[in-house]
Amino acid sequence: MPSEASEGRESRPYAVVDVGSNTARLAVFEVTSAGGLRASFESKEVPRLGEGVGPDRSLSDGAIRRGIESLARFRRRLAAAGDPPAIAVATSAVRDAPNGAEFVARVRAATGFNLRVLTGEEEARYAYLGVAGAWDLRSDTIVDLGGGSLQAVRTKGGLVDVAGTAPLGALRLTAAFLEHDPPKGREIEALRRHAREELAKLRGAGATRGRLFGVGGTIRCLARIAVDVTNYPLERVHGYPLTRRTLARVERLLLELDADERRRIPGVGGHRADVIGAGVVVVDALMRRTGASEIIVSATGIREGIALEHAGVRVPAPSETLAWRSVTAEANALGFSLPHGEAVRTVALELFEALAPRFGWGASERLALSVAAWMHDVGWTIDPWRHSKHSAYVLRHAAIHGLTQREVAIASIVAYLHEGDPFPAAWKVSFRGILNDDDLETSRRLGALVFFAEALDGARPAMWIPRGTDRLVLRPQSGRGARPSDRTVQRLRKPTRRALGLEVELDGR
Q1: 107: domain CATH number?
Q2: Is residue 504 situated within a structural domain?
Q3: Do 39 and 187 sit in the same domain of this protein?
Q4: Which of 5, 31, 179, 232 has the most crowded CB, counting CB atoms within 10 A?
Q5: CA distance linking residue 104 with residue 481, whole number of Å
């Protein structure tokens, strides 16, 4: 995996500006030589270009003014950040407006941004690229719900198979269907019928053969609400599996309240309180249309897709490659030692392969172990004396890609346990909802593997378990580091016996 670091890619920061129907967003990205992408700065404005449009979808004078003012603020923020080169795009509101070209020209004159107006198909492709940069895609469906439109992409073998766009954005539908606040039952039913009709025509939004991934501020907002109302163990929405059952609970909550009451729900915020009701109705219709039992929320989308294309990063890619790329980005930002992490991972994986048949471990456990080993010492950048605790925290919140939330939780626990600390009993409760008892036991055992690998301190003996025994034999090998000392072997014996049920022996003695 570290061999990817030899690929030459630019490392200079660059910015992506995404002007949508409801919000405008700015992100400054840096890319590692391995292809890891990380946002070093982000900013958001709410110009609501799609609000108050004319019958022909023309942008109003007020919307144009708000859009230019928002982009002027972005320009000032970029100047303060060193004025990196910027790629600026506009989506549904400008695309559909007869006076969209006028808006683009006025933006260029006032701010210097040269807005590229994306077609619906281009918008769908960039959403795909953003998701493919974070997930090992197969035959899956990706949907990007914005303020003005909904994009859908169906993949085959990880590549785009079918893509389409529909005018189903939350801001657009709120204006068209939800006249009252809270909305009347007849308004909601009319919106449901319209959503079903539009989805039936939308290429890429048919019955899904794989997973359903959701992109966009509306879907992330619904996930934040769900995390709060269900007391979900992880606060991160990236990777959150929003089930139909939980979505129904969130939908009932949102549609019974007015905008002021919705604004007080954690995760909603002022700029989305009046449009989230239409958004949840569309997502419900979408899940019914695709037959998906859950929608996996992706925090990566159009901006990341544009950045990945600009940097020349190849997608699709396997989960371990995606994880390595994002770990390199975190290492660049936080300053922990990747060579040490890779050395520990190498030894831990040798032991993992010897033990996998015994404990039924597979690719998922291997991935969690790899990420934990790479990042087990990231906590040193915060507090050397309690670094394992901080490593666990960073792993739960960092933008590490390629992992499910189960794998993130396991990696976090493994990092915590790498110093040989006891397994906290409270975790059986705090991680409930993501990890079952078997997962917790797996985490404890994988933590012992990272502890074992680090305790060897650079030694890489051959390791095997003689058939039919509970012995782990270490035999020093020429050219693979120093011979483990008797003190090291003694240090390894008790935790290995306790976590793995094995007796450590050196040279068979």
Answers
A1: 3.30.420.40
A2: no
A3: no
A4: 31
A5: 62
Cβ atoms of residues 178 and 259 within 8 Å: no
Are 93 and 129 in the same domain?
no
CA distance 129 to 155: 11
> H helices within 81-146, ranges in order?
92-96, 100-111, 120-132
In a domain, 311, yes or no: no
Q: d(Cα 502, Cα 509) in Å, to the nearest integer? A: 14
Whether residue 236 is found in the same domain as residue 330: no
Whether residue 167 has a cis bond before it, omega within 30° of 0: no
In degrees, rounded to 5, the angle at the alpha carbon of residue 19 between the alpha carbons of residues 166 and 45 is: 125
Position 461 in a domain: no
- Which of these ranges, 183-197, 207-221, 443-457, 467-481, has the smallest mean pLDDT? 467-481
> pLDDT exceeding 70 applies to what percent of the chain?
97
CATH number reported for the structural domain that contains residue 237 in this entry: 3.30.420.150
100 and 152, same structural domain?
Answer: no
Specify the CATH number for the domain of residue 422: 1.10.3210.10
- Confidence category of residue 2, pLDDT binned at 50, 70, 90: low
Residues 6+ apart with CB under 8 A from 227: 234, 235, 237, 240, 267
Sign of CA dihedral 410, 416, 419, 424: negative
Q: Are residues 280 and 146 in the same domain?
A: yes
Domain that holds residue 277: 121-303
Answer yes or no: do 52 and 153 share one domain. no
First to last CA, the chain: 35
In this structure, the answer to whether residues 129 and 101 fall within a common structural domain is: no
Predicted confidence at residue 3, as pLDDT, reads 54
The whole-angstrom distance between residue 496's C-alpha and the CA centroid of its chain comes to 34
74 located within any domain: yes
The fraction of the chain above a pLDDT of 90, given in percent, is: 85
pTM over 0.85: yes
Q: Is 296 exposed, middle or buried (0-12, 13-18, 19+ CB in 10 A)?
A: buried
Q: Which of 277, 303, 329 is the last residue of a domain?
A: 303
Give the list of residues 6+ apart from residue 288 with CB closer than 8 angstroms, or none. 196
Our count of domains for the chain comes to: 3
Cis status of the peptide bond prior to 424, with omega within 30 of 0 = no
Model confidence pLDDT, tens digit, residues 235-281? 889 999 999 999 999 999 999 999 999 999 998 988 899 999 999 99
Residue 27: how many CB atoms within 10 A of its CB?
20
Please give the single-letter amino acid code of residue 498: R
Cα–Cα distances (Å) from 478 to 220, 306, 316, 475, 481, in that order, read: 53, 48, 39, 10, 7
**Claim to verify: residue 337 and residue 240 sit in the same structural domain:** no
> Residue 159 in 3-state DSSP?
strand
Please write the tens of the pLDDT for every residue from 321-331. Answer: 999 999 999 99
Q: What is the 3-state secondary structure (H, E, C) of 378-411?
A: HHHHCCHHHHHHHHHHHHHHCCCCCCCHHHHHHH
DSSP string, 33-99: TT--EEEEEEEEE---TTTT--TT-PPPHHHHHHHHHHHHHHHHHHHHTT---EEEEE-HHHHH-TT
